[in-house]
Amino acid sequence: MNIQGHKSPDMVSFPLDIPDVKVNSVRQNEQGDYIITVESTQGYAVCQQCGRRTTQFHGYNGWLQLRHLPVLGHRVYIRLRPKRYICPHCAGKTTTQQLAWYVAKSPHTKAYEQHLLVQLINSTVQDVSRKETVGYEAVNGAVERSIHTQVNWEEFAELSVIGIDEIALTKGRRNFIAIITTQQADGHVAVLSVLPDRNKTTVRQFFETIPPRLRPTLSTVCTDMWDGYVNAVQEFADCHPDVSIQVVIDRFHVAKNYREDVDKVRKQASRRLKKELSPTDYTEIVQGTMWLVRQNHQDLSAVDRKKLRRLFEYAPELKLAYTFREELTAIFEIPLTAVEARTRLLKWAEKVRRSALTGFDAFLTTLHNWLDKIVNYFVNRHSSGFVEGLNNKIKTIKRRCYGITRIVTLFQRLYLDLEGYRRFA
Ligand SMILES: [Zn+2]
Predict the structure, then answer these.
(1) What local confidence, expressed as pLDDT, does residue 2 receive?
(2) Which of 44, 108, 364, 383 has a CA-to-CA distance to 57 between 20 and 30 Å?
(3) What is the pLDDT of residues 185-242, one digit of tens each?
C-alpha cells in the first residue's frame, strides 16, 4: 500500500498485491482499520449472456467494502465500485465486471477468505469468529464457498488403504455416522466420505462411487469389528473381479474391547474392597488407582508401580486381568508374522480360558469370531499408526464440532483439518 504524500522516516510503503486495480486513497478510521479505496484498471467485462468480452463501459455499481488481510495488526478493508459493461451483441444486456481477487456476494477478498480457513484448521467457527471479529455466518460462508461437500476423486492417484471409523453424533445415543478415510503412499491421510449411518447398504453405496480406475489400487480396508462394514466390503469385492481387498481389524479397536473388560474387573474389585476394608485402608490402597490401572505398565513411575502392587495384593483377580491385558498388548507390539501372531493369540486365549478369570469371556468369543481379520493386522502393520492418528483427530473433531448435525458440514471440516495447510496456507 502506498500512502501518498507522506515520506517521513517512520512510514513504510509496500505493494497492495491485488491485480488489476489502482489505489485511489488510504485512510484510517477511528477503530484503526485501514480503508483502501481502489479502482479497477481492467477495461472489460465478460458478458454473462454470450461469454464474449465487452469493452463498452456502462456505469458503476454501488460501493463494495471487502475485508482483506490485516496489516500490522490492523483490520483492512478494500472499497471499490464495480464497473458495469454493456454487450453490443446481446441487445443491451449489461454485466458487472468480476475481478479475480474476490467472489461476487462474498464479504471478503479471496486472500482473506483463505486466511479465515487457515485460522479454522483444528479450531472452531466460534473461536475464529471472535479472534477475527468476523460474523459466525461469514466464517461459515468461507467454508461453504471454498470447500467442496464431497470427495473429488481427481485428487487421488491411488487409494491402497481405506479406514472406516465411526463417531456418535449425539451424546449418549447410539446414533453413529461412519467416516471413511484413506492413507496415501506419502503417509498423508485424506477424508473420502462421511456416511449418515453404518448400515451395510450405505457403506456399499459409498464403495460403488469409487471410480473404476482407482478400484484396482485398493488393497486394504481397516475397520472396527462391525458386520455392516465387513460385509459391505466383501460384497463390493465379490462384484468387481478387478478388486482384491484384505480386511484388517484395527488393533486399537481390539484393544479398546479388552481394556474395557479390565476396567470392569477393576470396578468389581473396588466395590468388594469397599465392603471388606476399613475406610482408612480403602482410601490408602484403592482410591486414585483407576488411572494407574488404565495406564500401560511401561508408562508408570516407580511410585505408581508400588501403589499398583499394593492394590494387587488385595485384588488378585485384577492382577490377573491386568497381566493378561499387558501380555496381549505386547503381542501386538512384537514384530510377528501373521502365522506367529495367530499362534500367540490362540495360546493367550487358551491361558485366559483355563484361568479362574471370567472377565474376558465376551472378549474371547469376539477374538475367536474375528481372529482371521485381527491377524491380518500383522501382514501390513503400518496401517495401525494411520488409524490411531486418525482416531485422535476424530476425537478432537467430535469435541470441537459437537452440535454439528449436518454430515456435509462434518465432511468439510474434516477436509479442512486434514488438507487445510496444504491447500490454503
Ligand atoms: Zn453478450
Answers:
(1) 46
(2) 108
(3) 888 888 999 898 999 999 999 999 999 999 999 999 999 899 999 999 999 999 999 9
Spacing of C-alpha 107 from chain mean position: 27
pLDDT for 255 equals: 92
- Measured in Å, residue 97 CA sits from the centre of ligand 1 at 13
Residue 147 lies in a domain: no
Q: Are residues 368 and 263 in the same domain?
A: yes
**Rounded to an integer, what distance in angstroms lies between the CA atom of residue 251 and that of residue 225?**
10
> What per-residue confidence (pLDDT) applies to 56?
95
Q: What is the residue whose three cell numbers read 449472456?
A: 49
Task: Calculate how far, in angstroms, residue 45's C-alpha sits from the geometric centre of ligand 1.
Answer: 10
Per-residue model confidence (pLDDT) at position 171: 64
Distance 43 CA to ligand 1 centre (A): 16
CA atoms of 197 and 204, how far apart (whole Å): 12
Task: Report how far ligand 1's centroid is from the alpha carbon of 52 (Å).
Answer: 6
Residue 92 CA, ligand 1 centroid: distance in Å: 8
Output the CA 57–ligand 1 centroid distance in Å.
13
Beta strands in 53-159 (DSSP E): 53-54, 57-60, 64-71, 74-80, 83-86, 94-96
The reported pLDDT for the residue numbered 375 is 95
CA-CA-CA-CA torsion sign (194, 200, 202, 207)? positive
| Pair 260, 237 in one domain | no
Query: Which residues form the domain of 7?
Result: 1-102
